[in-house]
Amino acid sequence: MFRSGSYRSAYNEGAFSRSMMAPKRVSVLTMTEDLGPTLLTERLRLRVPTGADTEFAQSMYSKPEVVRYIGAGEPELSMEEAAARIERYRARFGPLTGVWMVEGREDRVPRGFVLLKPIPFSSGSTAEQEDIEIGWHLHPHAWGSGFAAEAAAALLAHAESQGLQRLVAVTHPDNDASKAVAVRLGMTAAGLTTRYYDTTCELFCLDL
Fold first, then answer.
1. Three-state DSSP class for residue 26
2. Burial call 172-197: b when 16+ CB within 10 Å, e when fewer
3. Is the C-alpha dihedral spanning 177, 112, 80, 85 positive or negative?
4. What is residue 133's three-state secondary structure?
């Protein structure tokens, strides 16, 4: 549950659209902020997270169903852990990359986070250049609404506009919902890999 009454009200009033369709590419309006751009889609606003988002992060990443396929799968229960996560997300921003808060374009209700960042290679793996990962973490209230694909499509458009030529996405082998989002984005399934994160992942690739 959200501790903020404004969050609870927005969810209870059915703020989330139930449209199941999202385009593979979207028109994106970019507005520059202190660390990175704000990206707008038809329904969503992707912006730099701030300390004001700590409560939402704590609510979301404390849920076992959210973290089940993220890292070690351990819920982050404290506000201190959530604050540290927001600071890590803010530190990710560079000329092309970052971790964006996803919220409703009109209602500003938070839905989750999407990322575009260098992906860490597993120990012993080498490459001539770094790979850029695209990913998505959404609150359960936003599941099944097409928001993950819509937000990620905005990042695809941003990456392409900035001259990136290739993106990868990795999922837990059992995370069928996340794999479906990658396919919906037009990414190509490349099978299992141990190339990243010192674990076995399902790999998806996309040439821009």
1. coil
2. beebeebbebbebbebeeeeebebbe
3. positive
4. strand
Which tokens belong to 116? Answer: 């575009």
Reading the block at residue 46, the tokens are 């992707």
User: Can you read off the two tokens belonging to residue 187?
Assistant: 């990414």
Q: What pLDDT, in 10s, does the model give residues 115-140?
A: 999 999 999 887 767 899 999 999 99
Which stretches of the chain score pLDDT less than 50? 1-25
Task: Give the pLDDT confidence of 60-73 residue by residue, as tens digits.
Answer: 999 999 999 998 89
Task: Tell me the whole-structure pTM to 2 decimals.
Answer: 0.84
- 109 with 103: CB under 8 angstroms? yes
Identify which of 174, 176, 179, 170 has the alpha carbon closest to the alpha carbon of residue 201. Answer: 170
User: Is-contact 121 100, C-beta < 8 A?
Assistant: no
> What is 5-207's CATH number?
3.40.630.30
Tell the residue number behind the tokens 């919902």, with chain if given.
177
Which residues are 101's β-sheet partners?
Answer: 47, 113
